Amino acid sequence: MSEIKVTDNKLFIALLCVLVWLPLPFGSNRPWAEAIFELAMFVIVWVWLVSFYSGKLTISAPFIAARWVLTILLVWCGYCLLQLCPLPLSLRLLISPNNTQIYLQAGVTSWAPLSLYPYATFLFFLRSTAYLILFGLLLLLVNTRHRLVLLGYTLVFSGVFQACYGSIMTLSGLEYGFFIPKLSYTGFATGTFVNRNHLGGYLEMVSAVGIGLLLATTSTSVHARNWRQRLRNFIHLLLSQKLILRLMLATMVIALVLTRSRMGNTGFFSSMLVAGFFTLLAFRTQASSFKDMFSRNDTRSAVLLLSSLMIIDIFIVGAWFGVEKVADRISESSLAHDADRVDISVNSLNVLKDYPLTGSGGGTFHAVFPRYRVADIGAYFDHTHEDYLEITADTGAIGLVLLATVVILSLFGALFALFRRRDRLMRGMAFASIMGVTAILIHSTVDFNLQIPANAATFMVLLALAWIALSMDRASEISHASRSAHNKHHKLHPTASVTQ
């Protein structure tokens, strides 16, 4: 038993180390950093499989609950691999006529793959497989409440480091990225990322986890009837993890404001409102009446927390560190102001028209787009500033539907957890999943966060949190609920058991 526990613990710690490492080397958006991430995932899953077949490890409840999502992700990886497989000319003419025309122009008249740049698609396949492994390992290794809390704090501490580093570099004028001077986005917080918007995307997601942990924190303060009790409550607040978490969240909000990322800030506060609405709706369904809803301690705490986050972060922290500059950038947004982004998106639509079903191949946008670029676009762009557009251009309608299904199913899983669970921690993590996923979905309409390995991996963590929140310790909660119902019935009908 001890050997099993040691193996399990080591794998979990290794997984946490990977999550901390991912954002450090430019968001892992470099071939060597990407290779380290993929190698780490393959090694950890290989050790887990060997231990599993040796009888040392078992399948967890969240893994079983997410089996359909895991199946779809396996199909997605298989689909990426299919894009690399040589297909006969007749079949390619049926599936993708433009693909066939390109290969014929290159003198290839026999078998050829669906991808127009097989090497880039192979790297895309490896990266997709690493994300699938990360998702599966999280479901398997985050199998206790302690580990779930540790995972949450690991992400929050990583976000705080990025926030402090990015803020210090910006406010001090040092302007260093990952051990080298910044070549772009000087004057804006970027952390160890290259792009300020990618730091914004990362902070959106890890801040959601921090808020989820805050919601999960049980309030133990006693109602103050005199000044002594008020003093005790105040001291308890100063020493509590709530205040520490709140300060860490404020630090991340400061950095988010200093990125001056328009959609980063918009996505953060909009997703908080969306997740907050569903949280209050969940409390409403769990209350016996509307009046009882607001008399419950859980509901009051959630309302006060979310209200304070909005008020303090926008009007105090944001005003001090320049939220008006973010507002100015949002107000300046227009077709003329963002002409390059609009032109890239418009021209990318032509890629979709030519490769609607299967796309041009995973990861091939940077190689295919120059053929569609007009003269007005002078700079080189390796990504379009819209994740949905690039995913569809690369993998076609088939790829978009597969990934959308994974996200939708996970969001429903998080909503079910929020409405059905009574456990504070599970509801907090469900909130984190809903808020973080919603934030990055909003941000992805104008940026390419999901093309950055650190952000895409963190997105997979949020999807996994939905299934962990839904199914972890579910059996014990149901058992406790049934015992409570039995005890309540016994109190109302004390002679029932005697009569029976």
Written overview of the protein:
- This protein has 22 helices and no strands.
- α4 runs antiparallel to α7.
- The longest helix has 34 residues.
- With 500 residues, the protein is mainly alpha-helical.
- It has one domain.
Name some characteristics of this structure:
500 residues; mainly alpha; 22 helices
Record the SSE blueprint.
Layout: H1 2-21, H2 31-53, H3 61-65, H4 67-82, H5 89-95, H6 97-105, H7 118-141, H8 145-172, H9 196-216, H10 227-239, H11 241-258, H12 262-286, H13 290-295, H14 297-320, H15 323-332, H16 339-354, H17 365-368, H18 387-420, H19 424-443, H20 453-471, H21 474-492, H22 496-499
Helix pairs in contact: 1-2, 1-7, 1-8, 2-7, 4-7, 4-18, 5-6, 7-20, 8-9, 8-11, 9-11, 9-12, 9-19, 9-20, 12-14, 12-18, 12-19, 16-18, 18-19, 18-20, 19-20
Gist?
By secondary structure, this protein is mainly α. The chain is built from 22 helices and no strands.
The SSE string, one letter per element, is HHHHHHHHHHHHHHHHHHHHHH
Number of domains: 1
Number of helices: 22
Largest sheet: none
